[in-house]
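Page 47, continued from p. 46.
Same chain as before, 161 aa.
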Amino acid sequence: MPEMTLLGWFHTILGIFAVLSGFYTIYKYKVIAYGVSSGKLYVLVTLLVAGSALGIYNQGGFGVAHILAVLTLIALAGGYIMERYKWFGSFSKYFQALGYTSTLLFHMIPAITDFLRRLPVGDPFIDSFEDPLLLNFHMAFLIIYVLGIIAQMIWLKTQVN
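Result:
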């Protein structure tokens, strides 16, 4: 595993901060919204994290993490547009939740991958992207994401606008 660059450290520290603020926002408000301070913080920090990911090329070129960064930028834009302009009327809140919450999944996939490939230093947990431990984490995150989205959709449906 290559050494962490200054950009890598910036990206990692902001990524941790983004994930924590995202989960806090969902815990407190049930959905991420730019209209609340912790949601705004999450969106802005996630924007920085995704942008910085596009500048990290120590793994040999444009890869999965870069694709996730692009998807994150698209999901952030979609969530913001749905929240701000409500292009789909009353259904916009569902697309907003889907967009913003998807970015948490897009954070977690490269985060756990990098964590397991780097730690413990000198003897990392995994040495391959096909390692069952990594694939199980990815599957667990996907299941949690799907269940979370379903819970958000149900909660949003019960809200009176």
